[in-house]
Amino acid sequence: MVTVRAPATTANLGSGYDTFGAALERPADEVTVQRATETTLTVTGAGAEYVPEAPTENTAGVVAATLDAPATIEIRKGIRPASGLGSSAASAAAAAVALNELYDRGYSRAELVSVAAEGEAAASGEVHADNVAPALLGGFTVTRPDGTTVVDAELSLVVCLPAQPISTREARQVVPSSLSMDDHVETVRNAATLTVGMCRSDPALVGRGLDDPVVTPARAALVDAYDAVREAATRAGATGVTISGSGPGVLAVTRPTDQRAVASAMVDGFERAGIDARAIQTGVGDGATIR
Ligand code: HSE
């Protein structure tokens, strides 16, 4: 029997659509696997009722098939599905590490990124590894088709989760299919600023680099009260605000001393619009760990 904890992750960070990701210190999923002749799944915890238990539809079940590693899989969700925190990716990453260990497959963490990404495709309909890479490797990650680069940044973050599920499939449909040269230049400038900021663990640079003229404005229309929450967080000291992954979670970068005030300003911002929300004060954290 093997148990693995895999962290929530925040993908895109504004300017790095389908490329940037970061592991969060909390929340996390836990997955326990035991050898079996065929794969079966049980899911408990946050939002478990929304997670399919059929092995072909569950990210962890798809990982078991990809690794040819049939198992009894228990998933304990600490990460609410459809919240923008890489919930399905965390289960896929935890299952990949656990089954690799259980069946002694010998894959490296980097090699497991593409395995877990196959599982992710079951949830979102497309293979993109910007959540599974940080869930496996930790830190801030830059994911390319030929591999992932990791930066061990130290950064205070707040993610604020409104009580409004958004499916990644739905959120990908509103992403524009082209962009102007001006928007391209601005995106490159912001993505470079953010990357330098992560290398220096500099909240001011990372916050500025979250700005994104293309994907986030299109998706903001899906997140009720996004503009008001962004403004409230900025007034409370956030150095930058964007949508976490495909939403509806909202991510803020802060200095450590402003973290608490930013968290409460974001919850207030949602509540003023009549939307229940909860804020998690967190930071850039480690990847999946075997318990
Ligand atoms: N990069 C992905 C997206 C992350 O924004 O659609 C969510 O799975």
Structure description:
It is built from ten helices and eleven strands. With 291 residues, the protein is α+β, with helices and mostly antiparallel strands. A hairpin with an 8-residue loop joins strand 1 and strand 2. Helix 2 packs across helix 3 and helix 6 runs antiparallel to helix 7. The longest helix is centred in the middle third of the chain and has 20 residues. The radius of gyration is 18 Å and the shape is globular. The structure holds L-homoserine.
Summarize the main sheet. 7 strands, mixed
Helix content: 25-40%
Total strands: the figure is 11
Structural class estimated from helices and strands: alpha+beta
Q: Measure the end-to-end span.
A: 11 Å
What is the highest CATH level, the class of the largest domain?
Answer: Alpha Beta
Describe how the helices and strands are arranged.
Elements: E1 2-11, E2 20-35, E3 40-45, H1 59-66, E4 71-77, H2 87-102, H3 109-124, H4 132-137, E5 140-144, E6 147-151, E7 156-162, H5 168-173, H6 181-200, H7 203-209, H8 215-220, H9 226-235, E8 240-243, E9 250-254, H10 259-272, E10 277-283, E11 289-290
The structure holds L-homoserine.
